[in-house]
Write a structure and sequence with these properties.
2% helix; 48% strand; mainly beta; globular; 9-stranded antiparallel beta sheet; 8-stranded antiparallel beta sheet
Length: 280
């Protein structure tokens, strides 16, 4: 059990497992269980703070997708700002946990002030021998109400997208960005991939979803505070158009992103919200 802190990142261990979190974006870039990497990080990912990290678990706040109202980039400013190191929360044989924070003073200079609200975000990472819990809290520290959407943009490593499925979405309504479909009911027990997929599933619930390969569950995702799930794979053409996406990377990754999208969170002054996921 250990916590190692540098100017750029924090590395934590518990037993034979480890996690790596960059201060830029408070982005988890690695989660290994007994030495096996569970997250996908593009081998072309930019880690110098000049753009969002392509892989791991980027944090989306205060909006999912584009939001021209405030002139902010896609998915907001949280993943583009350097967070403050709060410190180690626990280190024992059962778990190792650390926390990071962001308020308006830490927002990337080019984006500071565009979202006209006072807030405090705290991101907590809890590692055990076989699980990773990531928790994002948002507090309204100002004197006026605000609303937001948020998401944990998790990239998971898989062996082969041809053999990967997502379980737990049957009967849920989804929007499909690729084909402009709205509020379609998912009929499949196992959702597979044979082309680009970009869907928002609504009201999935705490039971969450699981990633299945060759019939076996490789990662399960349960949630609290996040109602919705985005499923994304850029496939061939779109991935080739991203200069930070590794060649044929679409074959060995899938994004399963828990979030609060369909019903924005509304916080009055002094109120706090928490959303979390547990990976195992």
């Amino acid at each position: 059990m250990s916590v190692s802190v540098s100017d750029q990142k924090v590395v934590i261990t518990n037993g034979a497992s480890s996690a790596e979190i960059y201060l830029f974006g408070a982005t988890v870039t690695s989660w290994k269980v007994a030495g096996h990497e569970k997250l996908f990080l593009s081998n072309k990912a930019v880690l110098d703070g000049s753009k969002a990290v392509r892989g791991g678990i980027p944090l989306v706040f205060p909006h999912f997708g584009p939001n021209p109202k405030y002139g902010l980039p896609q998915h907001g400013f949280a993943r583009l700002s350097k967070w403050s190191w709060v410190g180690t929360q626990t280190v024992n044989e059962n778990e190792t946990s650390v926390a990071f924070s962001l308020d308006p003073s830490g927002v990337a200079p080019a984006l500071a002030g565009k979202w006209p609200h006072q807030f405090k975000l705290v991101f907590t990472v809890v590692l055990t021998a076989n699980t990773l819990k990531t928790s994002l809290s948002a507090e309204n520290t100002g004197d006026s109400e605000f609303e937001f959407t948020s998401l944990l943009h998790s990239y998971f490593a898989i062996n082969d997208i041809d053999n990967a499925k997502i379980r737990g979405l049957q009967g849920k309504l989804y929007d499909e960005k690729i084909h402009n479909k709205v509020k379609v009911t998912e009929e499949s027990d196992l959702v597979g991939f044979s082309a680009e997929v970009d869907r928002v599933y609504y009201n999935v619930g705490k039971a969450g979803v699981s990633i299945v390969e060759n019939g076996a569950t490789v990662t399960s995702i349960t949630t609290n505070g996040f109602d919705d799930v985005v499923v994304w794979n850029p496939w061939i053409e779109k991935s080739q158009g991203m200069n930070d996406f590794q060649e044929a990377g679409y074959k060995v990754m899938v994004c399963v992103e828990v979030g609060q999208i369909g019903t924005p969170v509304v916080l009055k002054p002094g109120e706090k919200w928490v959303g979390e996921q547990l990976l195992r």
